[in-house]
Amino acid sequence: MPRFDVISQGEELLSGSTVDTNAGWVCHELAQIGLEPGRVTVVGDVLDDIRDVLGESAARVPVVICTGGLGPTSDDLTSEAAAAAFGQALATNAEALAQVEERYRARKREMPPANRKQAVLPTEATVLENRLGTAPGFRMEIGGAVLYFLPGVPYEMKAMVMEHVIPELRARFALPPRRTVVIRCMGIAESVAAQKMEGFERAGVIVGYRAHMPEVHVKLHLAPELDGAALVLEVRERLGNVIFGVDCGPLAEVVGQHLRARGETIATAESCTAGRIAAALGAIPGASDYLLGGAVVYSNAEKVRQCGVDPDLIAAHGAVSEPVARALAEGIRAQVGTTWGLAVTGIAGPSGGSPDKPVGTVHLALAGPSGTTHRKISLPFERERVLTFTVGAALDLLRRTLEGDT
Amino acid sequence: MPRFDVISQGEELLSGSTVDTNAGWVCHELAQIGLEPGRVTVVGDVLDDIRDVLGESAARVPVVICTGGLGPTSDDLTSEAAAAAFGQALATNAEALAQVEERYRARKREMPPANRKQAVLPTEATVLENRLGTAPGFRMEIGGAVLYFLPGVPYEMKAMVMEHVIPELRARFALPPRRTVVIRCMGIAESVAAQKMEGFERAGVIVGYRAHMPEVHVKLHLAPELDGAALVLEVRERLGNVIFGVDCGPLAEVVGQHLRARGETIATAESCTAGRIAAALGAIPGASDYLLGGAVVYSNAEKVRQCGVDPDLIAAHGAVSEPVARALAEGIRAQVGTTWGLAVTGIAGPSGGSPDKPVGTVHLALAGPSGTTHRKISLPFERERVLTFTVGAALDLLRRTLEGDT
C-alpha cells in the first residue's frame, strides 16, 4: 500500500491553543481508499521548519498532504517554504489570482491587497480550486511524490480532499474502487459499536468507526460487487435502533425530513440547553417548514410564564424533574399550537449538582398527539459535552417517536 | 531558546479514531516555561517508524518528549524502538519492575505476567515514577539531548510532566519565561487585522493571527522584559474597538461578565438564529445569573405571540426589517422583564433571498434602559457561516453597548 504523510501547519496547533483535528480526518479518509498513514507532523509558522519537513516527507513517501499556511498574512509561509524546499521560484499564478478575485466578487467585497499573496505560488505548482474560501490550494510533483497543499480551515480542507485529492489518488495508484456506506447512530459509544460489530468484516468489507459527537458513524467500505443494502440490514440486526439513517445528514435533518413528510410542526422549551435544540433544528435549510418557535426558559419564572408550568410543581419537584419536563413539553406545544412539543431541563454543571441530582442529570419530554413521553438520562461529563449529548438525546427521542419506536 | 519535539505514538492517533490532545498540552506547558516547540510527530505502532523519528528528533533538538507505547501489549514498542535508535540493549530494570509490582500490590491485584514487559528498558535509561498507572516512564541522555518517555494516558502523562519533566528542564536550561498575550477581536477579518498590524513587530515582539470564527485572535509573543500592557494599548490604537478582551474567554463570557458585574439581565428573541445566541450565552458556566430566557420566533405568528410584534408591521416591512427587529427586542425585553432584549431577524439562506434582501441580510436590535439600537449587516456566506457570524455580531452589539461605545 502506498504510504502518505500529513503535515499540519500553524503556530496555534503547536502552541496547543487549537487541537489539530485535520490530520486525523485526512488519515482516516485516505486510509479508507487504501493508502497507509506514515507520519503526521505538526510544525509552527517557521519557514525553515516547514521547508525541512516538506523535503523530508517528499523524499520518504509518495503522497504528502499539507494543511494550513495559505492565508494572506505574514505568518502564512507554505508557498514560500514549498518553493524553498524544492528549489523553485515564486510567482503570481494567474489562475489562482483569478480564483481569489472571483471569491471576493461573489461576496461583493473589495479584495484587500494582502490577499494577492494567496496567488503567489511556486512556479511549477498547479492550482486547486477552493470553492468555499479565498485561499486556493495547489499541487506539486516532486520526484515520485505528489504533494497537496490545502487550507487549514477544516470545512474548506475537507471539501478539497473530497473534490481533488481522493479522485486523483484513486486514479494515480489505481486503487480498487470502494463504495463507502455511512451508517449514522445516536446513543451508542464508539467502543460499544465496535464490540457489537466484532467479526463483521469479511472479503470486500472493511468496517470503520468515527465518533462525531454526539453521533457515532459506522462506515462500511465495500467492494463494488457487494450488496450494500443487505449488509446494512445485517448491521441493523447488530446495532438496533440506535441507527437513525444511512448516507444521510445529521439527526436534525433526519427528524426534519420526517416532520416535513408528515406535515407536522414542532416547538421547543429548553432550560439547560438554552436554545441549542432549536438552533440544531434551525441549522437545517428549510427548517421553517416545521419549526415554528421555541422558548428558552432558563429561569423558573420563564418556565411559568412561557410554558405555563405550575409554580407549585417546581417547588415540589425542583426545576430538574420529570413533572417539570412534561409540563414544559405540554405547555410549549399548547402555547405555540404545534404537533410536537420537545422539552429539556437538566444540570449541565460544573455547579448546581447534588447527591440526589448530580451534574449531568437531564430530563427530556416530548408531548404529542398521543400523549407525552419522558426520558431521564445521566451524562457524567463536563458542561459542553452534557449539552451536546442532551441535544442528541432530545432529537433522538423525537426521531424514535416519529418512527413509532419508543 | 532551546527547542523541543513531541512524538505521539499510537495507531489510534494515526487512524483518526482518537484525536491527539497530549501533544498540544505538552507544547503549551513547555512553552510556558520558556522552551520553543519545534515539531510534533505522530507515528503508528511500527517499530522502524518510531525508531527513525526518535533518532531524527534527538539529532535535531535538545529536548524530546515521547508519549505512548509503554503498555504491556505486543503493539507497545517504545522501549524496543528507543533501544534500537540509540544502539542500546534491553534489560529488565529492577527499579521499574519494583514500581510496576508495587502498583499492583497497592491495588490488591495480582500482576499479570505480561506487565513484566513494562519494566524492560534500554540499559542506560533511568526510570521515572508513574504514580497514577502501571507503566513507568523513563529518561535517556543521548549526545546533548534529553529524551522523556511517558505513558499515553493523558492524566498519567500530565502528572509526570509536572512532577518530573518541568522541574528538570527548568533546572537544565534556567531560562526566563516568555509571555503570550492573546488579543481577541470580533468584527474584523484576519487579513484586515494583519494589514493594520503591519510593521508592529520589533525586537522581542512576534505577532501571530488566528481565525476562530467568528472571532479573530491577535497574539503577541513577548520577551519577558517588555511591557505587555503598553503594547496592548498600541494594538488598540491600530485595531480599535473590535478588541473585546485580552487573555479572556469567548465573547459570550465577556458580555456575561459585564452583565454579572452590573447586576443586569438579558433575554433574546431569535428568528434566523433559532436559539443560537441564547445557547452561546448559556454555554458559559453560571449564565443563569443573567440569562433569564428567550424566544425562538421562527414563524411570524410566534413573533406576534411571543414578542407582541404588530402583524401590520410585518405585513408592511417584512419579517426581515429594522422595525420588526426593534419590535422583537423591545417585545422580549418587556415580556421577560430584563434589562436588555437582544433580537435578530435575517435570511440565512440558501433560499429566501430577493434582490432587495439578499441571503445574508440580517437585522440586529438591542433594547435597553436608554432605548433601542439597530444594526443591519450583510453576510454573503453560506448558511452555517451566516448564522455563526450573526451570533458574533449580536453579542458584539451588546458588548459595545455595555461598554458605552456604539
Gist?
2 copies of one chain form a homodimer. In chain A, 39% of the residues lie in helices and 26% in strands.
How would you describe what is shown here?
2 copies of one chain form a homodimer. With 406 residues, chain A is an alpha/beta fold. The first copy, chain A, has 3 domains: 3-172, Molybdenum Cofactor Biosythetic Enzyme, Chain A (3-Layer(aba) Sandwich); 179-246, Alpha-Beta Plaits (2-Layer Sandwich); 251-402, CinA-like (Maf protein, Alpha-Beta Complex). Chain A has 14 helices and 17 strands. Chain A has helices spanning 11-14, 22-32, 47-60, 78-85, 94-106, 154-172, 190-196, 228-239, 251-262, 276-282, 300-307, 311-317, 322-336, 383-402, and strands at residues 3-9, 36-43, 63-67, 90-92, 120-122, 126-128, 137-142, 145-150, 179-186, 205-212, 215-222, 243-246, 266-270, 291-297, 340-346, 361-368, 371-378. In chain A, the strands form 4 sheets. A 6-stranded mixed beta sheet of chain A has the order 2-1-3-8-7-6, sandwiched between helices. In chain A, strands 14-13-15-16-17 form a 5-stranded mixed beta sheet, sandwiched between helices. In chain A, a hairpin with an 8-residue loop joins strand 6 and strand 7 (137-142). In chain A, helix 2 runs parallel beside helix 6, helix 3 (47-60) packs across helix 4 and helix 9 (251-262) packs parallel to helix 14 (383-402). The longest helix of chain A has 20 residues, at 383-402. The first copy, chain A, is globular. The mean pLDDT of chain A is 94.
